[in-house]
Specification:
It is a single chain. A hairpin with a 3-residue loop joins strand 6 and strand 7. The longest helix is centred in the first third of the chain and has 19 residues. With 210 residues, this protein is α+β, with helices and mostly antiparallel strands.
């Protein structure tokens, strides 16, 4: 019974992944396009939940190179970690997310862990139960971040109408991109200002006061 439940839950999460963003086997970044965004490190609250009893938080930490560790805590208090890179394409920034291990506490214990229970999984992590990259456009200021996720339905319509050529695999529930980082960059830059290319509800984050 538990095995059946887990398999059903996993399939549901995979469907949610394909419905909520565009998964990619390859990252959108290449070394020559990576940038450091000095405003990014810190703790941010989702403006849609700021002030509520349960607030969603995004904590960015600088890595050793041009990368960041994101610890995302959803409104249920469940945390997950992501390796994040930022690229600049033209005049626009794009984030690349990939799931990773949560940092350890002082005793060496993982703070949460990755998918230990399908009954309790971080909301953002449910987009990444498959080992895939996702990417989003980033608008940044000193005290606010705006993250726009690409709309998978927009991509599906482009492919169905043969308006774009980009390597992909079709599944029963959507598309998974298999294009190279360079191809992904061309796609992102081409549709950087296309309103219909993004989900309606942008994620708006406000820097948490220290």
């Amino acid at each position: 019974m538990k095995t059946k439940f887990a398999a059903t839950a996993l399939m549901g999460m995979v469907f949610f992944l394909l419905e909520s963003c565009i998964p990619s086997l390859h990252p959108i970044y290449t070394e020559d396009k990576l940038v450091v965004v000095k405003e990014l490190p810190g703790t941010w609250n989702d403006l849609q939940t700021d002030g509520e009893a349960k607030t969603e938080t995004w904590q960015f930490r600088s890595g050793e190179g041009k990368n960041y560790l994101l610890v995302h805590t959803d409104k249920q208090g469940i945390s997950a970690a992501f390796d994040v890179h930022v690229v600049k394409l033209g005049s626009h920034f794009f984030l690349d997310f990939f799931p990773t291990d949560l940092p350890q506490d002082e005793k060496g214990n993982s703070i949460g862990g990755i998918v230990k229970s399908l009954e309790k999984v971080n909301e953002m992590q449910s987009w990444h139960l498959l080992p895939v990259h996702t990417f989003a456009r980033l608008e940044v200021s000193q005290n606010e971040l705006k993250i726009n996720m690409f709309d998978p339905e927009f991509l599906a319509n482009l492919l169905k109408n043969k308006q774009i050529r980009i390597k992909h695999e079709k599944t029963e529930d959507g598309y998974v991109l298999t294009a190279s980082p360079e191809e992904l960059q061309k796609f992102a830059e081409k549709y950087a200002t296309e309103k219909e290319a993004y989900l309606d509800n942008a994620i708006v984050l406000k820097r948490k006061a220290r």
